[in-house]
Amino acid sequence: MRSRYHKISGRIPPKRLMVIKGIFTLFFLSLTATVGFAEEISYDYNHGLGTLNMLSQSPAQSLRLTLPMVVPGGIKPGLGAHAHTTWTNVWADRSEYLLDYEMLDTVLAVTYGFDKRFGLAVTFNNRNYFGGEMDNFIQEFHDLFGIRQNGRDEVPKDRKIVQLFDPETGKTAVELSAHDLNNNRIDLLLNYNISHGTQIWPAVNVYGTVSYALESAEVFKQDKQWDFGLGLGLAKRWSKSWYTYAAVGLSIFDDRELHEQVANVRPIEFEDYQLTGLFSLSWHYSPTFAILAQYLYNGAAVKNIDGLDKPSHEVSLGFKWNTRRIGVVEFALIENVITYDNSPDFGLHVGWSYVF
Predict the structure, then answer these.
(1) At CA 231, angle to CA 225 and CA 235, rounded to 5?
(2) Number of folded domains in the chain?
(3) What CATH number is attached to the domain comprising 61?
(4) What is the pTM of this model?
(5) Is residue 6 situated within a structural domain?
């Protein structure tokens, strides 16, 4: 297994180190920025119940840092505990590869808001790959609504495989267990709310994150890798019931060394940077219950594999409920749109948060 892949890059080049230093310098300078918005409203006026707390579930993106999309109110004053898990099914059948597996993405986090502006989060993120327990349900759902199976009904169910094909012969050149993609990491995130906003202007925050890979997918030669991210978030209340949230972020990845790869199979080349964006629309049935529609964009993670070299587009529909006694619970369904090979075919998300 360790001899199948090819080394494609070295350590972080000086030019990229300069970019990282410049971005994080701007970030820490922004911590001292003063925004001249009138403080005529409570600090959490524009917060609402916030967004659905999920990361990208796309195949290539999930092998490294997936930048969290933090908006104002995402880290509340005091000590908080958070647990979220997302279960997705992936099916992609192309001339160069076949992906047929499921993934359970589990996030455990502790947050601490020092005050109404500055907070931090320490997060453990584990991704486990396994066989397709959803296959039967998804195929029956597609048949019921006349949706094309795209070949998934022609292969055995409950598989957990990744296949790479020889482009000249079409024969399988490499077959891996999806379990070999398992990976986990620990992240440190710092957030600063620049402005709480007004009745006209949105609340604004900036944040930075440092991510350390404890265990990398088997395709990578090394486990101990560092990734970095920087983001900007917005939260706006439009009426008693309607809120919108938006965020944009940039990820900067440590170079990855891949293992030796077999002949006639194109070596995978990963992107060094990635742009991420989120938009969320929230309708509050009550101050403690909200229905959300959310769109997550992630730039391409791979340079040279058709389908995987496209951005991913993930749409979620769900709710958040502040039970008051046991914290905030959330639930969502995930679907892929626009590009189907680089997004989860279907997914379920549940989460819980509690501020002590």
Answers:
(1) 145
(2) 1
(3) 2.40.128.130
(4) 0.83
(5) no
